[in-house]
Design brief:
- By secondary structure, the protein is mainly α.
- The relative contact order is 0.07.
């Protein structure tokens, strides 16, 4: 018997667990509907707190850089280039602006003075905390409006998405490791 898989569940285990397997075309349509629903949700959330975010004097690229530094701590400029997927000159300009705003610091790496480290200042951390607070407050208000069944379904769905993200992250890390290992030693940059 050929085992068919949907959403990471085999047909046999779906029957055992009382789940209904769906066809590949229905799966694609469902994924598109989820993405459309997510985009509509994000638009409504953005519209409802746009005035609060407009008070914050940073651009979206700067906010992205601040979030990255807030999540990762101090990073080398080269790491910022890689993670943001932009050129060194673009990152340098973004860093200049957030340093000028007093939201980040730039310093030499004591282990390698040729390298520059960028990190958040207390003001930068406070700004990220404010972003998170606005988002958390809005999410609490939204979740409070759900009935118990809807809230439980959402919790289960987020658990499934978190598992999928973990698998995806692990897969991408393995792929990056394999790609780096396949480079000739002269072109590969091994972390120090």
């Amino acid at each position: 018997m050929v085992s068919t898989e949907w959403f990471g569940v085999t047909e046999a285990s779906a029957v055992t667990e009382g789940l209904t397997a769906i066809s590949e075309s229905t799966r694609a349509t469902t994924i598109d509907a989820v993405i459309e629903g997510y985009e509509a949700l994000m638009q409504r959330l953005t519209d409802s707190h746009a005035p609060e975010f407009l008070e914050i004097d940073v651009t979206m690229p700067q906010a992205k850089l601040l979030y990255l530094l807030g999540a990762s701590g101090e990073l080398h400029m080269a790491e910022l280039v890689q993670r943001l997927g932009v050129s060194l000159s673009t990152v340098s300009g973004l860093v200049d602006r957030i340093v000028d705003h007093g939201l980040a610091t730039r310093r030499e790496d004591p282990a390698d003075r040729r390298q520059v480290l960028v990190g958040l200042t207390p003001a930068g951390t406070a700004l990220i905390d404010r972003f998170r607070e606005l988002n958390a407050r809005q999410m609490r208000d939204l979740l409070d409006d759900l009935d118990d069944t809807e809230l439980d379904h959402l919790r289960a769905a987020l658990t499934a998405l978190t598992r999928a993200a973990s698998r995806m992250t692990s897969s991408q890390a393995s792929h990056r490791g394999a790609s780096a290992a396949s480079l000739p030693a002269a072109t590969r940059k091994d972390p120090a």
